[in-house]
Amino acid sequence: MIFTKEVRVVEDTVLFGKYQIKGILGTGHAGTVFLAVHMELEEFRAIKRVSKSYVDYRRFKKEALILKELRHPGIPIVYDLEEDSEYSYLIEEYLEGESFYDLIHNQGHLTAAMTIRYGIQICRLVNYLHSAGEIPILYLDLQPKNLLLCNETVKLVDFDHSATMIQANASSKRYGTIGCAAPEQYRTDMKLDERTDIYAIGVTLIYLGTGRYPEESPSPGLCGWTPELRKIVKTCLHSDPDKRYQSTEELCRDLIRLDQKTNGVSKLFQKNQISSLTIAFAGSKSGVGTTHLAIGLSTYLRLSGYPNLYEEQNDSGAVRRLALSFGAQSDRFGRVRIRGCSMKPKYGEAVVLEESKNRIVIRDYGNDLNRLKESMDVDCVFLVCDGSLWEAGGAEKAVLELESCACLRVIFNHVAAGLRIRKGGGLNPEYCYKAPWQPDSFLPERSHMRFYQALMDSLEIRPKGGWPLRCLRRAAVSAAEKLLRPGLRSR
To answer: Sign (positive/negative) of CA torsion 178, 180, 181, 186?
Structure first.
């Protein structure tokens, strides 16, 4: 069930001797959804209550029967189905998340890279339904409101229109959402099959990438889409099912190929055969812009389709102040979402939180170099130094202090014009970069995206008997503002 920030409190009630009701998550024409706690397991549950007199009660029972047989990370788990004299109760996994509809309504459309990455997850989810049994299960109502983003995992909810392919075609009624449904869902003389859901995937991709439905957005290319991505979506949306993709596997393969071709971060993972990455930021002194650049890289990775966690490892309290400013609430992992970025403030040792799985973690150590040196699981370090003429000695001292760290890169901020960096003193210009001026770390412009891409391009991480990893020494290429004329120089 969908988590909402406002849970209406109701009088404590215990259902079936084990579920203690804590509040109401939502109400609708079909019934009421309660937030409950399993009293023995001490775990949250979502309980959907539907009256037996409800006109579509049989559809509710069908949804329960379909869900109880499915086991997939993107589909809520059904734990139980209970009933009393008046109601039936569907006890499900409690999901903390936000629908794509709400996400884009609140934050704007996604980048093409993010659209591709989430599109791959959606394809795999729908493909599971199509291949879960001998007869394909058709979802038949795929749309942004029914797709949740929970801990960067796409979840599919509300299966009340779902049916096996035989059941869907035997029914005299056809359901769907106007603007998202395939043409054959409006007619009873056309067959419904896997390609019906593929049409809806195309609709969803356009909504993710433009914030509009196809009828409102005839030209996805206006949002910077590549010809390859436009072709993929156009194929999904063909009015003739025979001219669409014939399976979600085929569609997924094309999205994966496009992601590998266009996404520099994806190439980093492939090239180095790694499954996770922990990046540390530290500053040579306080106020040098370490947090600003760390958030900037986190934003770049997110916009490139790579969800990540910004983790505060210093005592600045910046994340808490941001959360207070934006009214962001923490989840059970202690994270808050601020302007699209997943951020975790520093907690005291007494606070015990559930561990979240994050493929990429960006840790901000502030100017606490000693704490950074004690961390054994960091894969690469970006040291931020003041580029002012009178701060060169402080930069060299910080580099010497961190010379034993894996994959050390140095970023100069507030660079003074004409400053030269000489070899010696532990400072090697080959690994130095000049940060461009960026007023808002949550809102990068094209030059900032090129800068962060160059930082990631410079990382060639290879296992050395397992973790920690070392970095093969290589200068960054492409669009980075390396320390060359007229700024910092390598010679």
So the answer is: positive
The two tokens of residue 50 are 């539907």
Three-state DSSP class for residue 212: coil
Burial of 153 (0-12, 13-18, 19+ CB in 10 A): middle
What are the CA-CA distances from residue 490 to residues 391, 424, 487 (Å)?
18, 12, 10
pLDDT digits (tens, 9 = 90+) for 317-363: 999 999 999 888 888 889 999 988 999 999 988 887 878 788 899 99
- Total count of residues recorded for the chain: 491
Cis peptide before 486 (omega within 30 of 0): yes
CA–CA separation, 225 vs 210, rounded Å? Answer: 10
Q: Residue 37 is encoded by which pair of tokens? A: 């706690």
Beta strands in 84-136 (DSSP E): 87-93, 98-99
Collapse the DSSP code of 30 into the 3-class scheme (helix H, G, I; strand E, B; otherwise coil) and give the result: coil
Residue 336 CB partners (closer than 8 Å, separation 6+): 319, 322, 323, 328, 329, 330, 342, 343, 344, 345
**pLDDT tens digits, residue range 284-325?**
999 999 999 999 999 999 888 888 999 999 999 999 999 999
CB 52 within 8 A of CB 86: yes
Residue type, 214: P
Q: Which two structure tokens, joined as six digits, stand for 54?
A: 């409800």
What is d(CA 382, CA 454) in angstroms, rounded to the nearest whole number? Answer: 13
CA distance 307 to 118: 10
Structure tokens at 285: 């002194």
- Set out the domains of the chain in order of their start, with CATH numbers: 13-93 (3.30.200.20), 98-262 (1.10.510.10), 265-458 (3.40.50.300)
* 3 state SS of 188: coil
Taking the mean position of all CA atoms in its chain, how far away is CA 182? 27
Of 475, 393, 487, nearest to 436 by C-alpha is: 487
Cα 465-470-475 angle, rounded to 5 deg: 150
Helix axes 194-210, 248-262, angle to 10 degrees: 30
